[in-house]
Design a protein that fits this description.
Elements (H helix, E strand, L loop, with lengths): L12 H20 L3 E2 L5 E3 H7 L5 H6 L2 E3 L5 E4 L4 H10 L9 E10 L11 E10 L4 H17 L6 E6 L3 H15 L8 H9 L10 H6 L12 H16 L5 E2 L13 E6 L8 E7 L3 H4 L7 E7 H5 L14 E5 L4 H14 L4 E2 L7 H10 L4 E5 L1 H5 L2 E6 L5 E5 L3 H8 L1
Parallel strand pairs: 1-5, 7-8, 12-13, 12-14
Antiparallel strand pairs: 2-4, 3-4, 5-6, 6-11, 7-9, 9-10, 10-11, 14-15, 15-16
Helix pairs in contact: 1-5, 5-9
Amino acid sequence: MLRSVKGLKDILPQQASQWQHIEMVARTMATQYGFSEIRIPIFEFTELYSRSIGGTTDIVEKEMYTFPDRDGSSLTLRPEGTAGVVRAVLEHKLLDSPTARKLFYLGPMFRHERPQAGRYRQFHQFGVEALGTDDPLIDVEVIVLLWQFFLTLGLMDLTLHVNSIGTPDDREVYIQKLKEFLEPRLNILCGNCQRRYLTNPLRILDCKVPVCQKSTEGAPTLINYLSDKSKTHFQAVLDGLSALEIPYSINHRLVRGLDYYSRTTFEITSPHLGAQSTIGAGGRYDGLFHALQGPPTPAIGFAVGLERVTLLLSEEISSKKVPLFFVAGFGVIGKPQAFKLLHELRQAGIRADTDHKGKTLKALLRSADKLRAEYAIILGDDEVNSENAILRNMQTKAQEIVKLKEIIQRIQTGY
């Protein structure tokens, strides 16, 4: 029997309404905040990710799905969305705008990670990017959008973590101090962090392995090495969050290890997901455009893993439910007349369905129950001859006779 590839997951019909609801909230809120949707390709030239994410990162070294094209060029399924958005903005000159360019995306990403709860090799992200301004209030706006997105979905017990990692110049002295602190502890760090010590020491602070977390207790904090300008920017972000009554916690371990990241970093966590508690994260990446040979451009964004969000929601959640009218047509003239009525209902914008396998009224009503239809419209030969239909409430079993030519108007005005 053929099965799906390891690490991939089907989204089944009974789960689709939950996903539709999450995506609807994402689109609605991003639009309310002035973000426009952008749809970027599923794969790009590999060089885009090796430049943007960094050649020494786990993503590039171990997790990307990379393959040769027929012309010999190297292509990669997108492991994240920001690099593709920045490439599209540069290619199509979207920075030529009188205001900051604000974009959002929804779609699948791909990483060869170890599958676990809420983490798959094909996963889906909702992300936003605000490009062209370093005003701390845009940082606040992006953070608040992420916070309100989760609150609108009804998620509870969330914690917003914020930090500032300053500029590359701020970090230069700090990284040397951090390495001095870590050097005598190197032999007890995990294998990944021993490698990070040479390539990306900031990431050691963000490691979730308990022994690494314990070993970095008492490490110097980056906030003490920020320039006055970076400190002022961070305080303005905190003041903006406080003014809007958004609760936050300063987390000195919250870092981004690549040179193009700067200043504000943030994430939102839930205690209901165990050790892998992050459900959305982001930060400022003022150096990324330059890394991709574009003009120096300040930027900030976030990404949300939707599979993680679904773990915190009931499968039954949906947006406003539209009632289903099941057309139960049977008999020599009843069935074709019912099929015509089914078409007319749909043309009028009414959600309607039937079961073409059902031959008897009993079988058809059983199908209506299985489809969880709110109402059934019963139409047999007798009903057609009398130009009537029976409208049945599937929950209360109450029935009434309605003129066939008036049934669409009755549904539109009374149900």
